[in-house]
Amino acid sequence: MAIEVRIPTILRTYTDGAKAVQGDGETIADLFADLEARHTGIQERLIDTANNGQLRRFVNVYLNDEDVRFLDGISTKLADGDSVTILPAVAGGMV
Predict the structure, then answer these.
(1) What's the rounded Cα separation, in Å, for the pair 55 and 69?
(2) pTM for this predicted structure
C-alpha cells in the first residue's frame, strides 16, 4: 500500500530534504513506524511517548485534508493512495 506523506520544511532534515516521501501502514501509527524505519528520528518529532503515544500537541496531521484528531487520531485507518500531510502548528503574534 502506497501512502504519500508531505513533510514540512522543519522535518525535512530527516528525509534528506524531500518534500514528500512514500510510506506504508494500515493506520497513522503504522505509517509513522514505517517512516521511522526509513527516516530515523522523525517519529519522535510526531509522537509524544509521555502522552500514551498520541500526536504531539503542536503537530497537525491531515488525511486527505481531514484533521486526524477529528477522526480516530493515530488509529485512523489508511487506504492505498491516501495522502497524509504533516504540519507544525504555528503560533505567535502580538497581543
Answers:
(1) 9
(2) 0.88
